[in-house]
Amino acid sequence: MTVSIQLEVNGKPVQAAVEPRRLLVHFLREDLGLTGANIGCETSLCGACTVLVDGNAVKSCTMLAAQADGASVTTIEGLARNGELHPLQEGFWEKHGLQCGYCTPGMILSANYLLAQNPSPNDEEIREGLKGNICRCTGYHNIVEAVKYAAERMS
Amino acid sequence: MARVLGTSIKRREDPALITGRGKYTDDLKAEGMAHAAIVRSPYAHARIRGIDTSAAEALPGVLAVLTARDVAAAGIPGVVPVGWLLPDLKTPAHPMIAADTVRHVGDAVAVVVAEDRYIARDAADRVAVDYEPLDAVADVVAALEDGAPAVHEEAPGNVAFDWEIGEREPVDAAFASAAHTVELDLRNNRLIPHAIEPRAVLASYDSSTGEMTIHMTSQNPHVHRLLMTLASLGMPEHKVRIVAPEVGGGFGSKIHHYADEAIVGLCSMKLDRPVKWTATRTETNLTDAHGRDHSTRCALALDADGRITGLRVDTAAAMGAYLSTFAPAVPTYLYGTLMSGQYDIPAIHCHVTGVFTHTTPVDAYRGAGRPEATYVVERLMHLAGDATGLGPVEVRRRNFVSPDAFPYQTQVALAYDSGNYGPAMDRALEMIGYDDLRGEQASRRDNGAKQIGIGFSSYIEACGLAPSAVVGSLGAQAGQWESADVRVHPTASVTVYTGSSSHGQGHETTFSQIVADRLGIEPEAVEVIHGDTDLVQFGMGTYGSRSAAVGGSAIAKSVDKIIEKGKKIAAHLLEASAEDLEYEDGSFRVAGSPDRALGLGDVALQAYLAHNYPDDLEPGLSATSFYDPANFTYPFGTHVCVVEVDTETGTIELLRYAAVDDVGNVINPMIVDGQLHGGLAQGIGQALWENAVYDESGQLVSGSLMDYAVPKIHNLIPFELDRTTTPCPHNPLGVKGVGEAGAIASPAAVVNAVVDALSPFGIDHIDMPLTPEKVWRAVNS
Known about the structure:
The structure holds 2 protein chains of 2 kinds. By secondary structure, chain A is α+β, with helices and mostly antiparallel strands. Chain A has 2 domains: 3-75, Beta-grasp domain (Ubiquitin-like (UB roll)); 87-154, DNA polymerase, domain 1. Chain A contains 5 helices and 5 strands, in the order E-E-H-E-E-E-H-H-H-H. Chain A has helices at 24-31, 87-94, 104-117, 123-129, 141-154, and strands at residues 3-9, 12-18, 50-53, 56-59, 72-74. In chain A, strands 2-1-5-3-4 form a 5-stranded mixed β-sheet, with helices on one face. Chain A is globular, with a radius of gyration of 15 Å. Chain B is an alpha+beta fold. In chain B, the strands form 7 sheets. A 7-stranded mixed β-sheet of chain B has the order 3-5-1-12-9-10-11. In chain B, strands 7-15-14-13-8 form a 5-stranded mixed β-sheet, sandwiched between helices. In chain B, strand 27 (652-662), helix 17 and strand 28 form a beta-alpha-beta unit. The relative contact order of chain B is 0.12. The mean pLDDT of chain B is 97. Chains A and B meet through helix 2, helix 3, helix 4 and helix 5 of A and helix 1 and helix 17 of B.
């Protein structure tokens, strides 16, 4: 049995028939080939799979593809516009906010949501806003710097 | 041109990773790819009475279900080997798939292959295994008690090895005549590495050629190929290609050869089509080699002046259910040899018992033995500061190996090549504002529940593994050199093929800086290739903070060979003598005649044209080097942690963390600082939150991120870093290595700080992790 869904992914309309149990992250990664969202756990804790669903940061391993029917989804692949990096992408590059890069797409999209809610967060607000995303490489020091860099660029 | 060594140029790795274009193993697809799911033991110890695979096989979309019988029928070696042998080491077989006995929760008993990953997992649930549960022992101390359940018949008393270093009698004499002694019983808590990318493999066998390509999460593809072909699959080494694409962190866990990757290889051979397997977090936590897990009794003897006269250490180190790849080396040659720390200690004895337990195997995890050694030495130094009345700073300073004593021969085999420990301590004290902090601490002592503590850790590590002959004499079944093939193309751009395989460290950026600096060209003109056994000559990989010191030195050596050859070509073209040529800023010049010069590009082109060329020289401009270091490298430093402990609730707040590290010359300061940040997070995580907990039946009760507390961003604080620079005297770059320093130094600094805060309560030790409950209980006992 499948259900048919229609949604927008990175600004483009998508139609598909999916198994009801298919996770959004598998739909994005395996059916659409958008492998930027990574899977780091199955308990909705690591945040590597974070995407934006209607502007909200969502862990796509705990949402069914069927639940995204009618939604607008943004993945890391859809963040750069017209070949120009998003200020958060620039910030992570400038400030060495990533090492292995596995958590980075989710971290950037969570930070994107944070800055949409609070365009000029202080250090504490950045740390509070990103606590749903785990990075094992950076010790988070430069992630805070990267988000501050982006916030300044975007203001 | 400007120098590029020592410059924080941005990483060339990042554009792909920040846009989602980087390809990790699970991102890869192959034509006809099937998916594997591995059936694992839910018991820590059980006999397998039978396995019924029929319900799984009946599920539409299932292609195969394999068990140990299929491994035996395939006529392959079918085992997972250990790569480091100690005298009298017990080496019971570790079968790829358990045949009649399972020995830890997560031990593989069957594998299902299906057309998609959902079906594979459904089918795995339908494999019915009839287990007869047996008594299990998960605790390292309990496993040594009389009558403990045996993990392997071949290892009576669960003893895998009994090892010692140093002399016992001089230590006994030192204690007999000591003015002060301090002693400690401690646990070094078991850790789960938690690379955020779980382990994954895509194996593609092609029966028409007999070749197999394996993409996998690997820190050392050539080592994996050797172990996979020799001990597990029995394939010819040259018929297997292992590729490590983007690798999402490792911290040691992706060094080791595991059963799972070999099982997936076997599935691909059986089905003659590509098969992919990606671990879930729970699976990766049950099967990635864990770290640490020591129980230690240790003691320090000092004379009336506070000078150390002897150190005694006795450790039981968990090996888990099987010996993982380098497991026996970790609590021995990477632990006992570090017991002199930064100190001149005349007598040391360290005894280690390796212990089988019904748990996931234990092997190298960031720091591997050296964090455990540093924890022993630096916890004892804290106690020694109290016992002698000298305090933590003076007792360390008084015992530092003097800067004029290098090379310094320790009593535990290592000879430190260089060091200057005082300045790092001085700088750390200055950064932290030590005297003011002590003043604030004193003012709070009788005033309220929140107490401040200041903790030190003056660490040494031995890294850059290291002379092959030495590690061979100690039991390594591998060399410890590194290789580099540097090819200058006819247009003077360069490709480097390195045996160091990156998994987040930024090798492509830093190695291009090494070549650019030495060759006087732009870093953009240098490409770096790694992580592919078909492209790269044999290499040992990335672990033990060795990539810059050993891999980078191999690159430097190759560049030097290219310059020497280039001089001969240039000399021929300039009608000069090669001895009179100098190479600087990308040009070969005749000394004293600045107008007689040829650029690297001119020489490179002539090297490939070979039209007008020296008779005794081969065409081409490339060089391969296998660099085998003369010694380990010895980074060191002093870290200071400041905490506030709420004595009413037991909660700990990190206030400051200052680290002064001496990692020798620095290639890219931004990357070096990033490595320290990450290591600090892992070491602080060990001290405060992380713990792999087994219950008495051998269940891993902290096997998911719900229960295992990996540090999150709001748990940590900004780190304050600085450096002193004492270059390594024996490698061409003067670099020492930085990947593990943070994880080595920080657990002791944090625990010392908390114990310092709690000193009014007479508390001199709490075992890691320092949870609020443990702190509260210590305060209230």
